[in-house]
Protein backbone atom coordinates (compact mmCIF):
# COMPACT_ATOMS: atom_id res chain seq x y z
CA UNK A 1 0.00 0.00 0.00
CA UNK A 2 2.73 2.45 0.95
CA UNK A 3 4.58 1.73 -2.30
CA UNK A 4 1.66 3.11 -4.27
CA UNK A 5 1.00 6.20 -2.15
CA UNK A 6 3.66 8.44 -3.79
CA UNK A 7 2.35 7.51 -7.22
CA UNK A 8 -1.19 8.27 -6.16
CA UNK A 9 -0.15 11.68 -4.82
CA UNK A 10 1.79 12.40 -8.01
CA UNK A 11 -1.16 11.35 -10.18
CA UNK A 12 -3.46 13.56 -8.11
CA UNK A 13 -1.07 16.51 -8.48
CA UNK A 14 -0.77 16.01 -12.25
CA UNK A 15 -4.54 15.71 -12.45
CA UNK A 16 -4.91 19.08 -10.74
CA UNK A 17 -2.44 20.70 -13.12
CA UNK A 18 -4.20 19.12 -16.08
CA UNK A 19 -7.58 20.44 -14.93
CA UNK A 20 -6.26 24.02 -14.75
CA UNK A 21 -4.44 23.74 -18.07
CA UNK A 22 -7.47 22.27 -19.86
CA UNK A 23 -9.54 25.24 -18.67
CA UNK A 24 -6.79 27.63 -19.84
CA UNK A 25 -6.64 25.87 -23.19
CA UNK A 26 -10.40 26.12 -23.74
CA UNK A 27 -10.45 29.81 -22.82
CA UNK A 28 -7.48 30.49 -25.13
CA UNK A 29 -9.22 28.71 -28.00
CA UNK A 30 -12.37 30.80 -27.53
CA UNK A 31 -10.31 33.98 -27.30
CA UNK A 32 -8.81 33.42 -30.75
CA UNK A 33 -12.24 33.96 -32.30
CA UNK A 34 -13.08 37.01 -30.18
CA UNK A 35 -10.32 39.00 -28.52
CA UNK A 36 -12.79 41.17 -26.59
CA UNK A 37 -11.12 42.20 -23.34
CA UNK A 38 -14.46 41.88 -21.53
CA UNK A 39 -15.42 38.47 -22.91
CA UNK A 40 -16.06 35.48 -20.60
CA UNK A 41 -13.01 33.74 -22.08
CA UNK A 42 -10.82 36.72 -21.20
CA UNK A 43 -12.13 36.80 -17.64
CA UNK A 44 -11.52 33.06 -17.30
CA UNK A 45 -7.94 33.45 -18.51
CA UNK A 46 -7.20 36.24 -16.04
CA UNK A 47 -8.72 34.30 -13.15
CA UNK A 48 -6.80 31.16 -14.05
CA UNK A 49 -3.55 33.06 -14.55
CA UNK A 50 -3.51 33.98 -10.85
CA UNK A 51 -4.41 30.40 -9.85
CA UNK A 52 -1.79 28.92 -12.17
CA UNK A 53 1.17 31.05 -11.00
CA UNK A 54 2.33 28.46 -8.46
CA UNK A 55 1.71 25.57 -10.86
CA UNK A 56 3.73 27.09 -13.70
CA UNK A 57 6.72 27.89 -11.51
CA UNK A 58 7.21 24.20 -10.62
CA UNK A 59 7.46 22.80 -14.14
CA UNK A 60 10.26 23.96 -16.50
CA UNK A 61 8.18 22.79 -19.47
CA UNK A 62 5.62 25.46 -18.59
CA UNK A 63 8.01 28.44 -18.47
CA UNK A 64 7.01 29.59 -21.96
CA UNK A 65 3.36 29.35 -20.96
CA UNK A 66 4.00 31.60 -17.95
CA UNK A 67 5.68 34.13 -20.26
CA UNK A 68 2.70 34.10 -22.67
CA UNK A 69 0.23 34.60 -19.82
CA UNK A 70 2.21 37.57 -18.49
CA UNK A 71 2.32 39.00 -22.00
CA UNK A 72 -1.43 38.52 -22.29
CA UNK A 73 -2.06 40.49 -19.09
CA UNK A 74 -0.02 43.40 -20.46
CA UNK A 75 -1.91 43.38 -23.76
CA UNK A 76 -5.27 43.31 -21.97
CA UNK A 77 -4.37 46.37 -19.93
CA UNK A 78 -3.40 48.18 -23.14
CA UNK A 79 -6.68 47.20 -24.80
CA UNK A 80 -8.66 48.64 -21.87
CA UNK A 81 -7.64 52.25 -22.47
CA UNK A 82 -10.00 55.22 -22.49
CA UNK A 83 -12.60 56.02 -25.12
CA UNK A 84 -10.73 58.68 -27.07
CA UNK A 85 -9.96 58.27 -30.77
CA UNK A 86 -6.30 57.74 -29.91
CA UNK A 87 -7.08 54.97 -27.44
CA UNK A 88 -9.45 53.33 -29.95
CA UNK A 89 -6.75 53.24 -32.61
CA UNK A 90 -4.16 51.94 -30.16
CA UNK A 91 -6.48 49.10 -29.19
CA UNK A 92 -6.54 47.72 -32.74
CA UNK A 93 -3.01 46.32 -32.55
CA UNK A 94 -3.32 44.80 -29.03
CA UNK A 95 -6.55 43.04 -30.08
CA UNK A 96 -4.74 41.26 -32.91
CA UNK A 97 -1.81 40.49 -30.62
CA UNK A 98 -4.15 39.03 -27.99
CA UNK A 99 -5.44 36.51 -30.53
CA UNK A 100 -1.89 35.48 -31.43
CA UNK A 101 -0.85 35.14 -27.78
CA UNK A 102 -3.99 33.11 -27.07
CA UNK A 103 -3.01 30.78 -29.92
CA UNK A 104 0.48 30.41 -28.43
CA UNK A 105 -1.01 29.63 -25.01
CA UNK A 106 -3.21 26.91 -26.48
CA UNK A 107 -0.24 25.43 -28.36
CA UNK A 108 1.98 25.38 -25.24
CA UNK A 109 -0.71 23.70 -23.16
CA UNK A 110 -1.38 21.07 -25.83
CA UNK A 111 2.36 20.31 -26.02
CA UNK A 112 2.44 19.81 -22.23
CA UNK A 113 -0.56 17.46 -22.38
CA UNK A 114 1.00 15.50 -25.26
CA UNK A 115 4.28 15.18 -23.35
CA UNK A 116 2.52 13.94 -20.20
CA UNK A 117 0.43 11.44 -22.18
CA UNK A 118 3.45 9.99 -23.99
CA UNK A 119 5.57 9.78 -20.83
CA UNK A 120 2.82 8.01 -18.90
CA UNK A 121 2.23 5.62 -21.77
CA UNK A 122 5.94 4.78 -22.06
CA UNK A 123 6.02 3.96 -18.33
CA UNK A 124 2.95 1.72 -18.64
CA UNK A 125 4.32 -0.04 -21.74
CA UNK A 126 7.66 -0.63 -20.01
CA UNK A 127 5.98 -2.68 -17.31
CA UNK A 128 6.69 -6.37 -17.81
CA UNK A 129 3.18 -7.21 -16.66
CA UNK A 130 1.29 -5.02 -19.13
CA UNK A 131 -2.05 -6.57 -18.19
CA UNK A 132 -1.76 -5.02 -14.72
CA UNK A 133 -1.81 -1.58 -16.35
CA UNK A 134 -4.07 -2.67 -19.20
CA UNK A 135 -6.84 -0.15 -18.47
CA UNK A 136 -4.34 2.73 -18.24
CA UNK A 137 -2.68 1.66 -21.50
CA UNK A 138 -6.02 1.52 -23.30
CA UNK A 139 -7.07 4.93 -21.94
CA UNK A 140 -3.76 6.61 -22.85
CA UNK A 141 -3.54 4.99 -26.27
CA UNK A 142 -7.12 6.03 -27.06
CA UNK A 143 -6.34 9.58 -25.91
CA UNK A 144 -3.23 9.69 -28.10
CA UNK A 145 -5.11 8.27 -31.09
CA UNK A 146 -7.74 11.02 -30.80
CA UNK A 147 -4.97 13.62 -30.59
CA UNK A 148 -3.18 12.29 -33.66
CA UNK A 149 -6.45 12.25 -35.60
CA UNK A 150 -6.76 16.04 -35.18
CA UNK A 151 -4.12 16.61 -37.86
CA UNK A 152 -0.41 17.06 -38.36
CA UNK A 153 1.67 18.67 -35.61
CA UNK A 154 5.47 18.74 -36.04
CA UNK A 155 6.10 19.08 -32.29
CA UNK A 156 3.97 16.04 -31.51
CA UNK A 157 5.74 14.09 -34.26
CA UNK A 158 9.10 14.99 -32.75
CA UNK A 159 8.01 13.79 -29.30
CA UNK A 160 6.81 10.46 -30.70
CA UNK A 161 9.99 9.88 -32.68
CA UNK A 162 12.26 10.68 -29.72
CA UNK A 163 10.28 8.40 -27.40
CA UNK A 164 10.26 5.53 -29.95
CA UNK A 165 6.61 5.11 -29.00
CA UNK A 166 5.58 3.45 -32.26
CA UNK A 167 8.09 0.65 -31.76
CA UNK A 168 6.59 -0.01 -28.32
CA UNK A 169 3.04 -0.03 -29.69
CA UNK A 170 4.12 -2.39 -32.45
CA UNK A 171 5.62 -4.68 -29.81
CA UNK A 172 2.24 -4.91 -28.05
CA UNK A 173 0.72 -6.44 -31.18
CA UNK A 174 3.20 -9.30 -30.89
CA UNK A 175 2.79 -9.76 -27.12
CA UNK A 176 0.51 -12.78 -26.46
CA UNK A 177 0.03 -11.76 -22.83
CA UNK A 178 -1.95 -8.61 -23.74
CA UNK A 179 -5.73 -8.55 -23.89
CA UNK A 180 -7.59 -8.36 -27.21
CA UNK A 181 -8.78 -4.86 -26.32
CA UNK A 182 -5.19 -3.70 -25.73
CA UNK A 183 -4.12 -5.20 -29.06
CA UNK A 184 -6.95 -3.47 -30.89
CA UNK A 185 -6.28 -0.04 -29.37
CA UNK A 186 -2.57 -0.34 -30.13
CA UNK A 187 -3.39 -1.30 -33.71
CA UNK A 188 -5.71 1.68 -34.17
CA UNK A 189 -2.99 3.98 -32.80
CA UNK A 190 -0.38 2.59 -35.21
CA UNK A 191 -2.78 3.15 -38.13
CA UNK A 192 -3.51 6.70 -36.91
CA UNK A 193 0.20 7.55 -36.82
CA UNK A 194 0.66 6.25 -40.35
CA UNK A 195 -2.22 8.43 -41.54
CA UNK A 196 -0.64 11.29 -39.56
CA UNK A 197 2.56 11.09 -41.61
CA UNK A 198 2.99 7.98 -43.71
CA UNK A 199 6.42 8.93 -45.01
CA UNK A 200 7.87 9.15 -41.49
CA UNK A 201 6.03 6.45 -39.54
CA UNK A 202 5.78 3.52 -41.97
CA UNK A 203 9.48 2.89 -41.40
CA UNK A 204 8.99 2.93 -37.62
CA UNK A 205 7.14 -0.40 -37.53
CA UNK A 206 7.59 -3.85 -39.02
CA UNK A 207 4.71 -3.98 -41.47
CA UNK A 208 5.06 -7.73 -41.95
CA UNK A 209 4.79 -8.34 -38.20
CA UNK A 210 1.95 -5.84 -37.85
CA UNK A 211 -0.09 -7.41 -40.65
CA UNK A 212 0.54 -10.89 -39.28
CA UNK A 213 -0.56 -9.76 -35.81
CA UNK A 214 -3.73 -8.09 -37.09
CA UNK A 215 -4.78 -11.20 -38.98
CA UNK A 216 -3.93 -13.41 -36.00
CA UNK A 217 -6.14 -11.25 -33.74
CA UNK A 218 -8.91 -11.82 -36.25
CA UNK A 219 -11.54 -9.44 -34.85
CA UNK A 220 -13.61 -6.95 -36.86
CA UNK A 221 -11.58 -4.11 -35.31
CA UNK A 222 -8.23 -5.64 -36.23
CA UNK A 223 -9.44 -6.17 -39.81
CA UNK A 224 -10.65 -2.56 -39.94
CA UNK A 225 -7.14 -1.48 -39.01
CA UNK A 226 -5.76 -3.68 -41.78
CA UNK A 227 -8.17 -1.99 -44.22
CA UNK A 228 -6.98 1.39 -43.02
CA UNK A 229 -3.35 0.42 -43.55
CA UNK A 230 -4.06 -0.83 -47.07
CA UNK A 231 -5.75 2.50 -47.90
CA UNK A 232 -2.83 4.47 -46.48
CA UNK A 233 0.11 2.48 -47.82
CA UNK A 234 -1.64 1.06 -50.90
CA UNK A 235 0.14 -1.35 -53.26
CA UNK A 236 3.36 -1.71 -51.19
CA UNK A 237 1.37 -3.04 -48.23
CA UNK A 238 -0.61 -5.41 -50.46
CA UNK A 239 2.74 -6.66 -51.80
CA UNK A 240 3.79 -7.30 -48.18
CA UNK A 241 0.56 -9.17 -47.44
CA UNK A 242 0.94 -11.29 -50.56
CA UNK A 243 4.64 -12.10 -50.15
CA UNK A 244 4.02 -13.31 -46.60
CA UNK A 245 1.24 -15.65 -47.70
CA UNK A 246 -1.48 -13.87 -45.73
CA UNK A 247 -4.07 -13.48 -48.50
CA UNK A 248 -5.65 -16.95 -47.99
CA UNK A 249 -5.96 -16.14 -44.28
CA UNK A 250 -7.82 -12.92 -45.05
CA UNK A 251 -10.16 -14.69 -47.45
CA UNK A 252 -10.87 -17.36 -44.83
CA UNK A 253 -12.65 -14.71 -42.73
CA UNK A 254 -15.46 -14.81 -45.30
CA UNK A 255 -16.38 -18.16 -43.69
CA UNK A 256 -16.68 -16.66 -40.21
CA UNK A 257 -19.89 -17.26 -38.27
CA UNK A 258 -19.74 -13.62 -37.15
CA UNK A 259 -21.45 -11.37 -39.71
CA UNK A 260 -19.38 -8.31 -38.81
CA UNK A 261 -16.16 -10.24 -39.39
CA UNK A 262 -17.40 -11.31 -42.82
CA UNK A 263 -18.43 -7.76 -43.70
CA UNK A 264 -15.08 -6.22 -42.73
CA UNK A 265 -13.23 -9.05 -44.49
CA UNK A 266 -15.20 -8.20 -47.62
CA UNK A 267 -14.18 -4.55 -47.30
CA UNK A 268 -10.57 -5.60 -46.91
CA UNK A 269 -10.75 -7.86 -49.97
CA UNK A 270 -12.21 -5.03 -52.06
CA UNK A 271 -9.34 -2.76 -50.99
CA UNK A 272 -6.78 -5.42 -51.88
CA UNK A 273 -8.52 -5.84 -55.23
CA UNK A 274 -8.23 -2.10 -55.87
CA UNK A 275 -4.54 -1.75 -54.97
CA UNK A 276 -3.28 -5.28 -55.60
CA UNK A 277 -0.85 -6.16 -58.36
CA UNK A 278 -1.03 -9.26 -60.53
CA UNK A 279 0.53 -11.61 -57.95
CA UNK A 280 -1.92 -10.56 -55.23
CA UNK A 281 -4.98 -11.03 -57.46
CA UNK A 282 -3.70 -14.43 -58.59
CA UNK A 283 -3.31 -15.43 -54.94
CA UNK A 284 -6.89 -14.35 -54.24
CA UNK A 285 -8.33 -16.38 -57.08
CA UNK A 286 -6.17 -19.38 -56.18
CA UNK A 287 -7.48 -19.21 -52.60
CA UNK A 288 -11.04 -19.65 -53.87
CA UNK A 289 -12.24 -16.08 -53.51
CA UNK A 290 -14.70 -16.16 -56.41
CA UNK A 291 -16.28 -19.37 -55.16
CA UNK A 292 -16.79 -17.84 -51.73
CA UNK A 293 -18.21 -14.63 -53.22
CA UNK A 294 -20.69 -16.61 -55.31
CA UNK A 295 -21.85 -18.38 -52.16
CA UNK A 296 -22.20 -15.08 -50.29
CA UNK A 297 -24.05 -13.46 -53.18
CA UNK A 298 -26.80 -16.05 -52.94
CA UNK A 299 -26.98 -16.03 -49.14
CA UNK A 300 -29.66 -14.22 -47.13
CA UNK A 301 -27.48 -11.09 -47.07
CA UNK A 302 -26.82 -11.22 -50.81
CA UNK A 303 -28.75 -10.63 -54.00
CA UNK A 304 -28.11 -8.76 -57.22
CA UNK A 305 -28.17 -5.10 -58.23
CA UNK A 306 -28.23 -5.43 -61.99
CA UNK A 307 -31.92 -4.63 -62.39
CA UNK A 308 -31.98 -2.20 -59.51
CA UNK A 309 -29.11 -0.21 -60.95
CA UNK A 310 -30.90 0.27 -64.25
CA UNK A 311 -34.41 1.06 -63.07
CA UNK A 312 -34.26 2.35 -59.50
CA UNK A 313 -32.91 5.56 -58.04
CA UNK A 314 -29.49 5.66 -56.46
CA UNK A 315 -31.03 5.99 -52.99
CA UNK A 316 -32.92 2.71 -53.44
CA UNK A 317 -29.69 0.96 -54.34
CA UNK A 318 -27.99 2.28 -51.21
CA UNK A 319 -30.88 1.10 -49.03
CA UNK A 320 -30.77 -2.33 -50.65
CA UNK A 321 -27.03 -2.63 -49.96
CA UNK A 322 -27.54 -1.69 -46.32
CA UNK A 323 -29.78 -4.73 -45.81
CA UNK A 324 -27.99 -6.95 -48.37
CA UNK A 325 -24.28 -6.08 -48.00
CA UNK A 326 -23.11 -9.03 -50.11
CA UNK A 327 -25.37 -8.17 -53.06
CA UNK A 328 -23.51 -8.42 -56.39
CA UNK A 329 -20.26 -8.96 -54.48
CA UNK A 330 -18.66 -10.79 -57.43
CA UNK A 331 -19.25 -7.86 -59.77
CA UNK A 332 -18.19 -5.39 -57.07
CA UNK A 333 -14.87 -7.19 -56.81
CA UNK A 334 -14.58 -7.12 -60.62
CA UNK A 335 -15.22 -3.36 -60.55
CA UNK A 336 -12.30 -2.91 -58.14
CA UNK A 337 -9.98 -4.66 -60.58
CA UNK A 338 -11.39 -2.61 -63.45
CA UNK A 339 -10.93 0.82 -61.86
CA UNK A 340 -8.08 0.03 -59.46
CA UNK A 341 -4.44 1.07 -59.42
CA UNK A 342 -2.60 -2.25 -59.35
CA UNK A 343 -3.20 -3.88 -62.75
CA UNK A 344 -2.29 -3.18 -66.36
CA UNK A 345 -5.10 -3.18 -68.91
CA UNK A 346 -4.21 -6.58 -70.38
CA UNK A 347 -4.08 -8.05 -66.86
CA UNK A 348 -7.57 -6.69 -66.16
CA UNK A 349 -8.91 -8.40 -69.29
CA UNK A 350 -7.26 -11.70 -68.39
CA UNK A 351 -8.57 -11.69 -64.83
CA UNK A 352 -12.06 -10.83 -66.03
CA UNK A 353 -12.09 -13.97 -68.15
CA UNK A 354 -10.82 -16.07 -65.24
CA UNK A 355 -13.52 -14.68 -62.98
CA UNK A 356 -16.28 -15.48 -65.49
CA UNK A 357 -15.03 -19.07 -65.83
CA UNK A 358 -14.90 -19.54 -62.06
CA UNK A 359 -18.41 -18.06 -61.68
CA UNK A 360 -19.84 -20.60 -64.10
CA UNK A 361 -18.10 -23.44 -62.28
CA UNK A 362 -19.18 -22.27 -58.82
CA UNK A 363 -22.83 -21.47 -59.59
CA UNK A 364 -25.45 -24.04 -58.67
CA UNK A 365 -27.58 -23.30 -61.75
CA UNK A 366 -27.33 -21.71 -65.16
CA UNK A 367 -29.69 -18.94 -64.00
CA UNK A 368 -27.39 -17.96 -61.13
CA UNK A 369 -24.36 -17.96 -63.38
CA UNK A 370 -26.20 -15.94 -66.05
CA UNK A 371 -27.11 -13.22 -63.54
CA UNK A 372 -23.54 -12.83 -62.26
CA UNK A 373 -22.05 -13.03 -65.75
CA UNK A 374 -24.50 -10.38 -66.96
CA UNK A 375 -23.37 -8.09 -64.16
CA UNK A 376 -19.68 -8.73 -64.74
CA UNK A 377 -19.48 -8.87 -68.52
CA UNK A 378 -21.38 -5.65 -69.16
CA UNK A 379 -19.37 -3.34 -66.92
CA UNK A 380 -18.32 -1.00 -69.72
CA UNK A 381 -21.91 -0.56 -70.92
CA UNK A 382 -23.51 -0.06 -67.50
CA UNK A 383 -25.57 3.10 -67.02
CA UNK A 384 -24.29 5.83 -64.74
CA UNK A 385 -26.75 4.92 -61.95
CA UNK A 386 -25.45 1.37 -61.74
CA UNK A 387 -21.83 2.51 -61.70
CA UNK A 388 -22.60 5.05 -58.99
CA UNK A 389 -24.15 2.43 -56.74
CA UNK A 390 -21.34 -0.05 -57.23
CA UNK A 391 -18.51 2.43 -56.82
CA UNK A 392 -20.09 4.08 -53.77
CA UNK A 393 -20.58 0.66 -52.17
CA UNK A 394 -16.98 -0.29 -52.83
CA UNK A 395 -15.64 3.10 -51.69
CA UNK A 396 -17.42 2.92 -48.33
CA UNK A 397 -14.32 1.37 -46.78
CA UNK A 398 -11.92 3.63 -48.65
Main sheet record: none
User: Level of helix content?
Assistant: over 70%
CA-to-CA gap between the ends? 50 Å
Strand segment tally: 0
- Uncertain stretches of 5 or more adjacent residues: 1-10, 82-93, 379-388
State the secondary-structure class: mainly alpha
- What would you call the shape? elongated
- Strand/helix succession: HHHHHHHHHHHHHHHHHHHHHH
In percent, how much strand structure appears in the residues? Answer: under 5%
Count of helical segments?
Answer: 22
Mean residue pLDDT: 80
Computed Rg: 28 Å
Plain-language structure description:
This protein has helices at residues 5-33, 40-57, 63-79, 85-126, 134-148, 154-163, 165-173, 180-196, 198-201, 207-217, 220-233, 235-243, 247-252, 259-275, 278-286, 289-297, 306-311, 314-323, 329-339, 345-362, 366-377, 384-395. Among the domains are: 8-114; 127-205. The chain contains 22 helices and no strands. The chain is an all-alpha fold and 398 residues long. InterPro entries: ARM-like, ARM-type_fold.
What's this, in brief?
InterPro entries: ARM-like (IPR011989), ARM-type_fold (IPR016024). By secondary structure, this protein is mainly alpha-helical.
Spell out the blueprint of helices and strands.
Layout: H1 5-33, H2 40-57, H3 63-79, H4 85-126, H5 134-148, H6 154-163, H7 165-173, H8 180-196, H9 198-201, H10 207-217, H11 220-233, H12 235-243, H13 247-252, H14 259-275, H15 278-286, H16 289-297, H17 306-311, H18 314-323, H19 329-339, H20 345-362, H21 366-377, H22 384-395
Helix pairs in contact: 1-2, 1-4, 2-3, 3-4, 4-5, 4-6, 4-7, 5-8, 7-8, 8-11, 10-11, 11-14, 14-19, 16-20, 18-22, 19-20, 19-21, 19-22, 20-21
Amino acid sequence: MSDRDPTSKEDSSVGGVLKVLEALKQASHELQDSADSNSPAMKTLLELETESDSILSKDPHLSNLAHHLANLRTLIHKSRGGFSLTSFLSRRSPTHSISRVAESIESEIQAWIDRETIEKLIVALSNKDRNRDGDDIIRLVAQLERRVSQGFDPELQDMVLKSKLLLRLDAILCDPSCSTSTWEHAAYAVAAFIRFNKDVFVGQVSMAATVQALIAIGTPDSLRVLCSLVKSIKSPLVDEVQSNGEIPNIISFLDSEDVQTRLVAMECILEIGYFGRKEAIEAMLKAGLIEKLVELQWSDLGGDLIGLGRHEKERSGRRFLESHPFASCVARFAVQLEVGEGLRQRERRAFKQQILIRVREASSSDAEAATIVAEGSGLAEWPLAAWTIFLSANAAAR
